[in-house]
């Protein structure tokens, strides 16, 4: 709901914004307490085990949203995925695994899930030229800036590096700021 409200301030009348909400589920890192989450989070280090099944299922749900918009008459190459934290991670993963050509990704305070499953070099998928804007605060205690830096380097090895923009924000924690909103 917070992103719906934030986007309302910059909303263009000719753009359709869809802000799906993560389902509520138990999260391992949260002592198995239920919270909004696209997939389970097991740990917060680059080598932590990942919820491969949950990530892939969440990506399929996003792909279904894309398919529905295409059926509604919006060409996939005019669709931009975006998200914050898990939502940004899911947006990156979905864009790099879908067969639908997308316009871009806005990835805020996030990482690339299942990064080891991607090739070491350029991808051959339809989104090898996709534009990606990645933003990260340099004081993020939940998703450290190192995760963002590792992600941007991996992305630049997979897609056209000229299409990857990485912006850091001094003093910003695991949140957003007006500068981030207006860079979108």
UniProtKB/TrEMBL annotation:
Where is it mostly found? membrane
EC number, UniProt record: 3.1.2.22
Q: Per its UniProt entry, what is the enzyme's top EC class, as one word? A: hydrolase
* GO BP annotation list: fatty acid metabolic process
Task: Give the Pfam families listed for this entry.
Answer: Abhydrolase_2
Catalytic activity, as annotated = a 1-(9Z-octadecenoyl)-2-acyl-sn-glycero-3-phosphocholine + H2O = a 2-acyl-sn-glycero-3-phosphocholine + (9Z)-octadecenoate + H(+); 1-hexadecanoyl-sn-glycero-3-phosphocholine + H2O = sn-glycerol 3-phosphocholine + hexadecanoate + H(+); S-hexadecanoyl-L-cysteinyl-[protein] + H2O = L-cysteinyl-[protein] + hexadecanoate + H(+)
Give the subcellular location. Cell membrane; Cytoplasm; Endoplasmic reticulum; Nucleus membrane
Q: Where is the Phospholipase/carboxylesterase/thioesterase domain?
A: 1-179
Q: Does the keyword Nucleotidyltransferase apply?
A: no
- State whether keyword Hydrolase applies: yes
Instruction: Quote the cellular component terms of the Gene Ontology held in the record.
Output: endoplasmic reticulum; nuclear membrane; plasma membrane
Q: Which UniProt keywords apply?
A: Acetylation, Cell membrane, Cytoplasm, Endoplasmic reticulum, Fatty acid metabolism, Hydrolase, Lipid metabolism, Membrane, Nucleus
What is an example of a GO molecular function annotated in this UniProt entry?
A: palmitoyl-(protein) hydrolase activity
The protein's job, in short, is:
Acts as an acyl-protein thioesterase. Hydrolyzes fatty acids from S-acylated cysteine residues in proteins such as trimeric G alpha proteins or HRAS. Acts as a palmitoyl thioesterase that catalyzes depalmitoylation of proteins, such as ADRB2, KCNMA1 and SQSTM1. Acts as a negative regulator of autophagy by mediating palmitoylation of SQSTM1, decreasing affinity between SQSTM1 and ATG8 proteins and recruitment of ubiquitinated cargo proteins to autophagosomes. Acts as a lysophospholipase and hydrolyzes lysophosphatidylcholine (lyso-PC).
* Family, as annotated: Belongs to the AB hydrolase superfamily. AB hydrolase 2 family.
- State the oligomer form and interacting partners: Homodimer.
Query: What is the protein named?
Result: Acyl-protein thioesterase 1
| Biological source species | Eudyptes chrysocome
Q: Which gene encodes it?
A: LYPLA1
């Amino acid at each position: 709901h917070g992103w719906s409200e934030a986007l309302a301030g910059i909303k263009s009348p000719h753009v359709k914004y869809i802000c799906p909400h993560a389902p509520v589920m138990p999260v391992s890192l949260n002592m198995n307490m239920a919270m909004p989450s696209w997939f389970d989070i097991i740990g917060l280090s680059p080598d932590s085990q990942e919820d491969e099944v949950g990530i892939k299922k969440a990506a399929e749900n996003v792909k279904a949203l894309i398919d529905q918009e295409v059926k509604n008459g919006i060409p996939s190459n005019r669709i931009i995925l975006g998200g914050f934290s898990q939502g940004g991670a899911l947006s990156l993963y979905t864009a790099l695994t879908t067969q639908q050509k997308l316009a871009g990704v806005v990835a805020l305070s996030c990482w690339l899930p299942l990064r080891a499953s991607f090739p070491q070099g350029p991808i051959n998928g339809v989104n090898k030229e996709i534009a990606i804007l990645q933003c990260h605060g340099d004081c993020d205690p939940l998703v450290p800036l190192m995760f963002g830096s590792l992600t941007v380097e991996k992305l630049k090895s997979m897609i056209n590096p000229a299409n990857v923009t990485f912006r850091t924000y001094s003093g910003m924690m695991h949140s957003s700021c007006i500068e981030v909103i207006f860079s979108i």
